[in-house]
């Protein structure tokens, strides 16, 4: 029986053969090398320690030789992230790039590597693990390993294009934010990106389940503190050539035309022809947050979605399709369709069970949940903590669980 050894990457020189490995493993999906290169280069919290690899035990006798793609049998990457729970910031390890070469599949490597990743998180003091998968079979696989599913719900608002375009919007000023801005503009404090980062930071402090994007949540927002915005978020948006970052402000007063108003909402929208119908434009809100004192989330969402659709049609020189389908996470929208009978024709709820969590440090998670009374020294105790975690993220408040998609890895 083949034995395997597990370790982290040892130096920057090992990044290239590791990239060769993941590209080979994801070849059937057609994932380009640039995807993995971007996820490494643009992650401000990247760590060589967070890339775990499995090699055949026999190859260790040649430890002095450089690592090559052929030596790596399997790998997983642990992304260093933080999540908000009850207003407290908790370290979380995001699982990604789970990959095993075809020649080594069926040998239990994936399970062994996931256990190794959890042991790594214990050593590094990371109390919670998270992952996302779109494959139902993989959801079942992780469930067998003790991961809990916290379903994420999406709404698809099917809206007549002409009605959407005619919706009143004189109370809003909408500007398209340059996607390259966060990485190139030196005056970060004076940009819409600063306002967006500030609104996001305030919003997620009141939610449970969303990622904290600032290095220092309690500090002022400057270019260094918002590095995650300037690199990861900007790179993910820029890579998608039909992505639009929109900032929405209250309409400028005629008495104070030069005074900048506080940001009311922002959205990051991915726009394309709907892959199923081919007769509607899909406007997918990958990030969408409205200031807490805004009157109606839906009207703000529709104003931003209409602007994203208009920008897409303008750049593609295509006649508008009759219908626009706005896709948004339930946790990002307090839906009140009854208030908009002329706009909302059909409301469809879509369930994604692929958002999964696993408790690594029961004491830390129990304290974050404000349940230090929960026993954590047994499997039953950990199970109770996981039940509390799932209940918190799927509670009656629809805005509890907002695992923003721009954080997906």
UniProtKB/TrEMBL annotation:
Residues 4-170 form the N-acetyltransferase domain. One of its GO terms (molecular function) is aminoglycoside N-acetyltransferase activity. Pfam families: Acetyltransf_9 (PF13527). It comes from the Eukaryota. GO terms for biological process: aminoglycoside antibiotic catabolic process. This is N-acetyltransferase domain-containing protein. It comes from Capsaspora owczarzaki (strain ATCC 30864).
